[in-house]
Amino acid sequence: MGDVTDDRNEVPPPAEAGGGGRPFAAVDLGASSGRVMLGFAGGGELSLREVHRFPNEPVRVGGTLYWDILALYRGVLTGLRTAGRETGGRLAGVGIDSWAVDYGLLDASGALLGNPVHYRDGRTEGMAERLAARLSPTGLYARTGIQHLPFNTVYQLTAARDDPQLAAARRLLLIPDLIAYWLTGEAGTELTNASTTQLIDPRTGDWSREVARAAEVDLGLFAPLRRPGDPAGRLLPGVLAETGLTGQVPVTAVGSHDTASAVAGVPAAGERFAYIATGTWSLAGVELDAPVLSEESRRANFTNELGVDGTVRYLRNIMGLWLLQECLREWAAAGSPQELRPLLARAAEAPPLRSVVDAGDPEFIPPGGMPERIAAACRRTGQPEPRNEAETVRCVLDSLALAHRAAVADAQRLSGREVDVVHIVGGGAHNELLCRLTADACGLPVVAGPAEAAALGNLLVQARAAGGVRGGLPELRGLLRGTQALRHHEPSGGTRAWERAAARLADGGKD
């Protein structure tokens, strides 16, 4: 189907760590797992390897879904201890990135008031409508440029307005800032992640006090803003003792929203590229110098999140591999576990575009019952239901590729930025079927990799702040192209079948 996978189309794999580069730890917390990566950068070297991975399993208590934040912090400490053992107890720095929008509340003594609530919890239902009574969706978008998602931080704070914890709070820290605070004792709010709260004006890179007033949010809860590359403190003596690290170990603010780090880790040449950062979510769009705040952009549900070096990540959130992850979890719970590789091989042989669903539908946000919800969506649109696991997976991947196609096309149309290539980074870069289907759907070549783009972007920002690498994003991306294994997929055939599938989905499933 147009993929090119022989060795002639790959750059050499990363060199073994430990050459001329200095050692950095990149803490990368995803919605399903966390990892600590040990990277070496400097002197033309850029290499990375995982030293510790740990699960990120939410917990439901009393009807509320929470993050197990202390388990995540323990995983970070274990990872730093492992990294220290491999480097003789020395690290040149630490950087932290994670998913967006969620936060922890601290009291006046700096103690955590409760486990952070998971963005998939149902507490934000109806909150967008409550805020809209005070500030219209058009006005909100014109001031923040952020895509409407029901779990944005501003809606979480609207839902928590009468919560005693919020009343008692003296500080609000987004997840990566919370981990950094526990490591260093210093509080800050990193800008790329702050931009996802729907409280930042992307034109100024500062808080929108007008939005905060309308949402009745006390901006005094937030620590001072930091930008990628700013210092975020040094590891506390107790952290050094627990991890076995020695010396003064700086923590650097990176693109602490994992997508900001992932986009910094896109190995693109020039400006004419689109990116798709894949994992639990697919975030598809283009990199710009200024936000797009038009009403047409709002209606297309595009977001203007801030990126490294003053860039704007103009993108659309798509449900992503969450759909596949949830199907696998459900099948395993039902006593029919599926091995992913052979399942993807069977999906590749399943009928293409037999049924597709809207991968941006909020119906798919909550966990549980995903295969049946996908089948129900097919029934509602008059399409045949998947008959087995392979057809369900093919429906998921066809639907994601179709959503990627729409996002890339809309990003070009709305921003005026034309693209010649699509870069897929993150976990989905390993999924050759998804990469092939995306190339076919978009009618554009796809470059897949690196899978660990977020950790690499994290590492590069740290190394640059420490003086180990130099230059702007073009130079950092050049280093990526010269050191990371990439796989190329060319589109096969035309896009007519994808056009028909998109029209069928828009028309309720009718051909």
TrEMBL record:
Q: The Carbohydrate kinase FGGY C-terminal domain covers which part of the protein?
A: 274-466
Sorted keywords for this record are:
ATP-binding, Carbohydrate metabolism, Kinase, Nucleotide-binding, Rhamnose metabolism, Transferase, Xylose metabolism
UniProt keyword Transit peptide, yes or no: no
Residue ranges with Basic and acidic residues bias: 1-10
Q: Where is this region: Disordered?
A: 1-23
Q: Which InterPro entries match?
A: ATPase_NBD, FGGY_C, FGGY_Carb_Kinase, FGGY_N, Rhamnulokinase
Q: What is its EC number?
A: 2.7.1.-
Any GO molecular function? transferase activity
Which intervals hold domain Carbohydrate kinase FGGY N-terminal?
26-264
Answer yes or no on keyword ATP-binding.
Answer: yes
Q: Which family does it belong to?
A: Belongs to the FGGY kinase family.
Q: What is this protein called?
A: Rhamnulokinase family protein
Q: Which organism is it from?
A: Streptomyces johnsoniae
Q: What is the lineage of its organism?
A: Bacteria, Bacillati, Actinomycetota, Actinomycetes, Kitasatosporales
